[in-house]
Amino acid sequence: MVDQVREQAYDGGGGVERSQATAVNTAEQRSLYQKREKIYPKSVSGTFRRLKWFILGLTLSVYYLAPWIRWDRGPNLPDQAILIDIPARRFYFFFIEIWPQEVYYLTGLLIIAAISLFLVTALAGRVWCGYTCPQTVWTDLFFAVERMIEGDRGAQMRLEATSWTGSKIAKKLLKHSIWLVIAMATGGAWVFYFADAPTFLPQLFTLEAPFVAYATIGVLTGTTYLFGGHAREQVCTYMCPWPRIQAAMLDEDSLTVTYRDYRGEPRGPRRKNTPTENLGDCIDCNQCVAVCPMGIDIRDGQQLECITCALCIDACDNVMDKVGLPRGLIAYDTLANVDQSSHGGKARIRLLRPRSILYMAILLLVGAVMLVSLVSRSAVDVNILRDRNPLFVTLSDGSIRNGYTVKILNKDHDAKDFRLTVEGMNDAGLQVVGSEPEALTVKSDRLASFRVFVTLPKGGMEDDSLPFTFVVTDLSTTGDTRHDSIFRGPAR
Asked: Are 62 and 82 spatial neighbours (Cβ–Cβ below 8 Å)?
């Protein structure tokens, strides 16, 4: 059985790399850049592979189907649950409606996403990269299409080595055609987040959609096809900055995919009539390398290229089952545990430690601030702009007049009437051009601007500036919105 496992590993490609000719290590033939060797990951079954398939299906379903979810917001409003309405300058997310001036919510979401990534990385390594990163998800999907058409690792390598025949050309064309369809669907789904999906879909096919939609689909199609079908591991290794940043998030108590060398070394094959007393559990079958989408050997220790997808765990566990050895030679473990176990100590997992507690505290704080802000936000925003030129006008009777522009934003879905008053100035006169201060009407989801003059009688100011407050009262709810301002006059 052991010999059979080794033969399968090497025939499947684990030992193919060893059979490739190496370049002569001379100064004349040495190159500044190493030519990329294409990686052919072998398929594997197991717990983590099933988990990856589940997450792949879940994330792709959310991405492709989310624009088609409906949400009733009332008449004359979009019924798409998730919509970035650029012409109307709105972002709709189910019952939440975000206006452009509320961009701080987006800032809060980005902070939460970043700290969550830090926390997850500190606890369990690069699980984002291995399971939910779009590059990983789409590359896994492209791998599945490639295996379906060209076969598994060994078949792909043999096909690549053969001359171009009709069968090879047909397989390549079919594979790349499916890749392009997936890539186009990726770009097509993205534009549906910016327009009503059921209405926009026929417009795309009848060429009635805006040019920017086709340009966006073209760019996303090209990048998805290039990154998922060709660049693959190169994106994770050279283009993505996270592998270099994550080192600051990890410590000796972070769970990562780890080769337990204290148990596996010295490695070596098991053969009949061959003593194994001095060998570790690793039979050097190279299966962990064969299944790795990054083409690395996890037995060399932690490496920048490792995305902790855990497929090597499934491959090693399958081999251990076949040779009758305990599972877990490669497993999620911590460096502290490996060190303790190698010296006969007891393994332990420390999830709560200063680093993770700090990240969780920041998450709770930012989340609480955003929740309170969202729950307590007003349906009315008021902005006051005071005239800068001139600062004031002295009227014929000696009174002083200042001009203001009052902007009232009605975020409600019904028209509202407002009353405008001032506080902090006795005997002040208030005039609204074209309207009465007691009845300022603002339509639903609209910003209304009013030209306002505030006048103080002669002798009403003791200094050249006087602070006061505009009060905008919602007549339907009697709720007040206050905005501080300054009244300017001549210097004494």
From this structure: no
